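Technical note accompanying the year-one report. For the benefit of new consortium partners, we illustrate the data format agreed upon in the data management plan: each record pairs a sequence with a structure-token string. No post-processing was applied to the example shown here.
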Amino acid sequence: MSSIEVIEWAPALPDEPAVVGSLHEPVGETLGAIVLTHGAGGDRSSALLVSLCDAFARLGWAALRCDLPYRQKRPSGPPSPSGAKRDQEGLARALDSLREKSERVFLGGSSYGGRQASMLLAERPELAHGLLLLSYPLHPPGKPEQLRTAHFPSLQTPTLFAHGSKDVFGEVSEMREAQRLIPAPVDLLVFEGASHGLIQKRDGAAKARRMATQIAEEFQRFVAER
């Protein structure tokens, strides 16, 4: 698939962050558009995001993988809790930038990026038609009492979770229990043996492509039923 490397997909506006990302153009007729973003330690170049955007493009979607505002400021390091709202604003702007591609826009993210995406849509459900959460960080490792689900009862957006069975940020049984808090349609795609992030460096490109294809096809099926 071809992707366009973009320094600024949408330049910064007063009090609004820039959209910095890489656009994967759809094959054939455009069926939808999706914004995907990374986890706390990554950026838009992660193997899973690249493969996932390629997979969506093959299905006829415009797919934009973008760097969150905190990653635009520095090439490495974790996000600051104080910057979460800014990261959510960046995702809202990315969604707006894709509306020229399709009337149906969707949002997704890995770990921290997915959490910010879900918090954004819990407050502003009109921004996207569906949500894809990869390795949602349900709680810090070893601290199941510190659940990150306070916004789930406000989430009105159909949501597909993709989760590894060995994810230390939330067991599959915990994820299923947390999903019951969401009033919108939800589903859970489990990858046996996968850990947090789903794809590790040792897994290789072929595994990333296979997993990405399965996720993209399942998400397309999931949202088509809504």
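Partners are asked to follow this layout when depositing records. The domain at 3-224 is CATH 3.40.50.1820 (Rossmann fold).
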